[in-house]
Design a protein that fits this description.
alpha/beta, six-stranded mixed sheet, 6 helices, 11 strands, about 20% helix
Length: about 220
């Protein structure tokens, strides 16, 4: 029942201190892959990959940041303690965390906590959220999902759609040039090596059309 009804998340604050990212894949060694993920990202080892991604996270976020992570946080065995160790090293005040499709550590830690919340410390918490949420950040409607959505709530009225999962491949597909004309963006590491702030996204979307692929337009009353 925890995921049956989920109210929109509301966040506000300095536009450079509300932050978004996806698909960090901490610890994903890809031992059976011909070309490991960490290598395609330009690293020499999974250890170097993880350390530099932590540094990139902490270069953008601070102890007062609200951070939205859209899934595939980490991967591999013995994930519960490694999950906690990494979270303790990351800067944020509130981390909203989706499971993605590689939900290592997420499920085990989620099940430990009441109300989907892990109070990491007195001023630091993780909120476990489903793979689809609707949010307002500084009154801007944003649909966030681990997976891309061509049609989403409020699309004709200027909502944004943020996703992960695709590792940049959807941009290269036949539908990519059509899909990304509107206010949709993949925020995974392959497209954005550093986390994105709300201010970054405002600039990114400012010249994009409120293009919609369904019958809803700017006359639709309910953005969410």
């Amino acid at each position: 029942m925890k995921f049956l009804f989920y109210k929109p998340i509301k966040a506000s604050g300095d536009e450079n201190n509300v932050i978004f990212w996806s698909d960090t894949h901490f610890g994903h060694r890809c031992e059976q892959w011909d070309l490991p993920l960490w290598k395609t990202r330009g690293f020499n080892s999974i250890e170097e990959h993880d350390e530099i991604i932590i540094k990139r996270w902490n270069a953008i976020a601070n102890q007062h940041s609200t951070f939205f992570h859209l899934g595939d946080f980490m991967f591999g065995r013995d994930t519960v303690q490694r999950f906690k160790d990494i979270v303790h090293r990351l800067n944020f005040e509130t981390l909203y965390l989706m499971p993605g499709n590689h939900c290592s550590g997420w499920k085990q830690n989620f099940e430990e906590h009441v109300r989907n919340v892990w109070d990491v410390s007195c001023n630091k918490r993780v909120v476990f959220i489903p793979n689809y949420v609707e949010t307002y950040v500084n009154e801007q409607p944003i649909v966030m999902c681990h997976y891309p959505l061509a049609s989403f709530n409020g699309q004709g009225k200027g909502s944004w759609m943020l996703h992960g999962h695709c590792h940049g491949n959807l941009y290269k597909s036949e539908i990519g040039p059509i899909l990304y004309k509107t206010k949709i963006v993949e925020i995974g590491i392959e497209k954005f090596p550093n986390p994105l702030t709300f201010g970054d996204l405002k600039n990114f979307f400012k010249d994009r059309e409120n293009l919609t692929f369904d019958h809803h337009n700017n006359n639709t009353k309910n953005p969410f």
